[in-house]
Amino acid sequence: MAEARSRRTGSHFGVHTVLIAASLVMVAPFVWEAITSLKSLTDATHVPPSPLPGSQWSNYRKVFQLLPFGHQFLNTLLMALGRTLGQVVLCPMAAYAFARLRFPGRGVLFGLFLSVLMVPPQLFIIPQYQIMSDLGWLNSLQALILPGMFSAFGVFLLRQSFLALPKELEEAARLDGAGPLRIYWSVMLPLVRPGLVALGVLALLWSWNDLFWPLVVNTDPDKMTLSAGLASLQGQFQTDYPVLMAGSLLASLPVIVVFAFLQRQFVQGIAHTGVKG
């Protein structure tokens, strides 16, 4: 018994050591970002670099001077919330239909949905831009939100969650007189809450960090998102890296806080997608 406990403790120690080392590697870029944001441009570009932070708190003030940070933060927030809300509402409906409802061509149609994941998203830029232009939505908030309100990955993620639920729940609800819509809304949807949280966190992160589409569809600085605005701080010949790092740190804080509060539900949702499929 003592030997088994000792071996178990030793194996846990090894696992914890590896996890701590991996955590330090992942946190290192954020720490370096914070250190660089407090340096002067000379110190930030000095070789070899110094691991000590400076005292240039004015870099954070320069971010607000160089960018309409408030407008861009609001645009990013509305875009992320709009896309996330759209995916959390629409993706479960499609996922439930593919997982629980029986209709002709279900497998073929679901395969077509998954085929979208194999196509590089850059191929959709030109047709999406043309649609936004024809609708007169360039340099607008709806142009940022609409193309990201549905996700084939979100359908796949939640379909796996619905498949993991026992059929007896639906049968019991039918015996009580519930229809498909009632079963979906009152019985099945609450049980896939971890999957919904996982999809919401992923959609929020993807939307918050999206650069290519906001950079293409909106050219007015007041209509840009934070990612596009920060990209404009990079000059052709010289970049003020401390200011750029200060802006990046400010832009990263909201999603870090959201993930810190929802990380448990996020991990549960991702884990439940592989139970049955």
The biggest beta sheet is recorded as: none
Shape: globular
Tally of separate helices: 14
Order of helices and strands: HHHHHHHHHHHHHH
Which CATH architecture is right?
A: Orthogonal Bundle
DSSP E strands, number: 0
Q: State the domain count.
A: 1
Q: Helix- and strand-based class?
A: mainly alpha
| Mean pLDDT, all residues | 88
Determine the strand fraction and express it as a percent band: under 5%
Low-pLDDT sequence parts = none
Q: Roughly how many Å apart are the termini?
A: 40 Å
Helix content: over 70%
The CATH topology assignment is: MetI-like fold
The CATH class, by name, is Mainly Alpha
CATH homologous group name: MetI-like
CA radius of gyration is 24 Å
Main location: membrane
InterPro entries: MetI-like (IPR000515), MetI-like_sf (IPR035906)
Transmembrane segments: 12-32, 73-96, 108-129, 141-162, 183-208, 241-262
Protein name: Putative sugar ABC transporter permease
What does the model show?
The chain is an all-alpha fold and 277 residues long. The chain has one domain: Orthogonal Bundle (MetI-like fold), CATH 1.10.3720. The chain is 72% helix and 0% strand. It has 14 helices and no strands. Helix 4 (69-100) runs antiparallel to helix 11 (193-209). The radius of gyration is 24 Å and the shape is globular. The two termini are 40 Å apart. One of its GO terms (biological process) is transmembrane transport. Its main location: membrane. Keywords: Cell membrane, Membrane, Transmembrane, Transmembrane helix, Transport. Residues 73-262 form the ABC transmembrane type-1 domain.
